[in-house]
Amino acid sequence: MARGPARNLLYLYSSRNNFTKIRAFLLPNRFLHSDFSNPSKSHLFNTPDPKFSKFTPPHFTQSLNYRFLEFHRHPFSSIVENESPKLDSDDVDSISDVGLGEDGPRKENLEPEKILNFAQIASRDPVEIYRELRDAARNEKQSRTDWNVLVEIFRSFAKSGWATNQALAVYIGASYFPTAAHEFRDFFFEKCKTDIVKYLVSLGPGIEAEKFLFPIFVEFCLEEFPDEIKRFRSVVESADLTKPHTWFPFARAMKRKIVYHCGPTNSGKTYNALQRCMEAKKGIYCSPLRLLAMEVFDKVNALGVYCSLLTGQEKKFVPFSNHVACTVEMVSVDELYDVAVIDEIQMMADPSRGYAWTRALLGLKADEIHLCGDPSVLDIVRRICSETGDELVEQHYDRFKPLVVEAKTLLGDLKNVKSGDCIVAFSRREIFEVKLAIEKYTKHRCCVIYGALPPETRRQQANLFNDDNNDYDILVASDAVGMGLNLHIRRVVFYSLSKYNGDKTVPVPASQVKQIAGRAGRRGSPYPEGLTTTLHLEDLDYLIECLKKPFDEVKKVGLFPFFEQVELFAGQFSDVTFAQLLEKFAQNCRLDGSYFLCHHNHIKKIANMLEKVQGLSLEDRFNFCFAPVNIRDPKAMYHLLRFASSYAHKLPVNIAMGMPKCTARNDSELLDLETKHQVLSMYLWLSNQFEEEKFPYVKKVEAMAVDIAELLGDSLTKANWKPESRNPGKPKLQENEIGHERPRSLIKLYEQRRKEGSSAGQNLEKVTA
Ligand SMILES: Nc1ncnc2c1ncn2[C@@H]1O[C@H](COP(=O)(O)OP(=O)(O)OP(=O)(O)O)[C@@H](O)[C@H]1O
Ligand SMILES: [Mg+2]
Fold first, then answer.
1. What cellular component GO annotations does this protein have (predicted)?
2. Which residues contact 128 (CB under 8 A, 6 or more apart)?
3. Which tens digits make up the pLDDT trace of 497-527?
4. 169: which of 74, 138, 265, 603 fits an S-S bond (Cβ 3.0–4.6 Å)?
């Protein structure tokens, strides 16, 4: 296809290819982005080609090389990649010459000469445009209408998310961008030239104009703000979380084999991975929960393989053991293992704790690593393995027995519960309401499991439920039941399918519904075939929808900086609090496209509370902030503050907490026991993070924790009172007179209101207020 200058113009306004895309290879920066994101296609642009000669003046290549270096080194490659035009040879060949396209800027009625002029402006080197403006004596006069459009264009530029992101690439920070954009506007207004203004006006306010202005803006910034750029650059470089696989050179030096056991719940993933681990000379099992680490510790030892236990709270060293069961946060990336198991690998995407799984996968020094989990992170694990150079073997599993949905439901009446049922509710309050109602209106007795209970108590309740020789044949549980415990559940009944997320009540995500429902029917239990249903008929459709839904593919997994990285970053600032430092880190850190920075509001809340404690080093603060504490429980927070103060004053940290004498007689006594156990658990955790001599009461605290866990278990088996709320501000569900039936399905209301077109969150808040 012959391409003369006239045809080149038509390329610009092709109807099949949008304007941006085509303009992309006419402008140096766009050109570069293509080059950068897809080196294999770079020949399209780098080879001197007569067909583009009109748009590639000789100095262009020079300026391109310079930019290429800049962008190549810049940290936000993912941003640039996302923005890069996907231009390939087909794009060029398929450009039709039928006329103007829909996507172009207001060009429909432009005369050919104007198009030609604009094409020339669009294709000019921004460096040259910038210099021309800079060297101009003053602005050329513009019409009022054009001026007004120009003002709008610059207003939109200053607020542009796209430009703000792109500016990071040249180390103009997001907080500095508005100032820089403002100065740029003043500069432009002072020097503007009619042909450029006309071209901008033809584009109008929006992304097209922003993309045209941006490279000129960059030239302006490089010349005007070298100090700011330098400062921001060193801040950004010290918050570099890109290429996390390079943080573990020893693991990278190894030839590791990764085996991904991929499948739904109850399909034998953990069983098979553990078998392999037990056969190895030296193995480690990384658990998502303390409870599960304890289960594996017991199981492996019972099978005759010596195994130690390591969690934040306890270190049980078994003599001669070469195996260890630990919580994933505690895994050592220094020790060498033959086989490692990382359970529930999909937790890599957990907004708060994901970093611990990512670290284990990237950093473990093991010849063989077995990952167990659902398929949601399979793709990202493939990507990570191609970066790390590890071999990946995939083993896919199906459920031993399919999960059956009971369409009848409980018809809204808890009297229809049957032996072996697990009723799942999503708040402590609902759990106790359900227990109370079942025990009042039926002959069944209930065990309870929820997140605030110590693992020992959850286990005791699980054993009580699994044991056939007692009346405790119903389990009432929160989502804490979704992972870890070996439970003999015949049927999972969802009391509701909505959950308070700390802000508002929302439907429970499908992946969680699947995980919980999948607990019904376990191989080796008296009920190998699982059933699931809902209390209310109107929730059934949502349950079925969730179970049918394929697993969402995870696009990003969590990361969090090590202390050393935070320390390096802290060196850039003086006079900022630790919470502010974390905030700044989050604003400035650089991440590759497959990673996100884990939520750290919890850490910031503790950091703020500890701000008034003098004498803690940065490292002490960092460690205290990870303490396992319920930030919504003021008593627990008070004890943490007290521990940190004693530690800072170099005093022995004491527990100073009375021991309850008897089981709880009401809900507030039960809440008190829960808090007391959490405080003891926190003490033990801290004693493992800091020098033990600073926490001299570990033995006493361990004994107290065992006693309280027992008291909690005994209290729960007797509990027959109405629940209280630890957090009075939290929305409560409506209660009906007898307190065991919800009046209406929240999910149904949610769906209905969503159909009506208003926002789900607002609606549910109305329902739950
Ligand atoms: N080959 C096997 N022989 C005997 N028991 C098995 C076998 N495979 C699995 N089991 C038992 O089946 C149950 C479910 O297996 P496992 O815990 O490995 O499933 P999973 O896929 O990891 O489920 P989850 O997602 O719930 O963790 C366990 O009690 C396990 O001991
Ligand atoms: Mg498992």
1. mitochondrial nucleoid; nucleus
2. 59
3. 998 877 788 999 999 999 999 999 988 888 8
4. 74
Spatial CA neighbour of 484 closest among 457, 519, 517, 530: 519
Residue 728 per-residue DSSP state? T
Distance CA 718, CA 665 (A): 9
Out of 266, 481, 551, mutate this one to test ligand 1's pocket (max ligand atoms within 8 Å of CB): namely 266
| Nearest-angstrom CA–CA distance, 467 and 465 | 6
Q: What average pLDDT does the segment 659-684 reach?
A: 93
CA of 374 to the centre of ligand 2 (A): 10
* φ/ψ of residue 734, rounded to 5: -65, 145
- pTM to 2 decimals? 0.72
> From the CB of 271, is ligand 1 less than 6 Å away?
yes
Each residue's pLDDT tens digit, 312-357: 999 999 999 999 999 999 999 999 999 999 999 999 999 999 999 9
Does the structure show a pLDDT above 50 at 460? yes
3-state secondary structure (DSSP) of residue 51:
helix
Strands (DSSP E) contained in 350-418 are 365-373, 391-396, 404-405
The alpha carbon of 315 and the centre of ligand 1 are apart by a number of angstroms equal to: 26
pLDDT of residue 504: 83
The CB of 269 under 6 Å from ligand 1? The reply is yes
Q: Which residue has the tokens 């020789």?
A: 469
Could you give the CA distance from residue 692 to residue 714 in angstroms, rounded to a whole number?
Answer: 32
pLDDT 10s digits, 600-639: 889 999 999 999 999 999 999 999 999 999 999 999 999 9
ipTM computed for the complex:
0.99
- Say which range, 272-286, 417-431, 476-490, 701-715, has the weakest mean pLDDT: 476-490
The alpha carbon of 376 and the centre of ligand 2 are apart by a number of angstroms equal to: 15
| Alpha carbon distance 196, 211 (integer Å) | 14
For 80, which DSSP code?
H
Amino acid at 579: A
Interacting residues of 483 by C-beta distance below 8 A, sequence separation 6+: 288, 289, 292, 344, 515
- Distance (Å, whole) CA 107 – CA 101: 9
* Alpha helical stretches, state H, 419-551: 428-441, 455-466, 510-517, 540-548
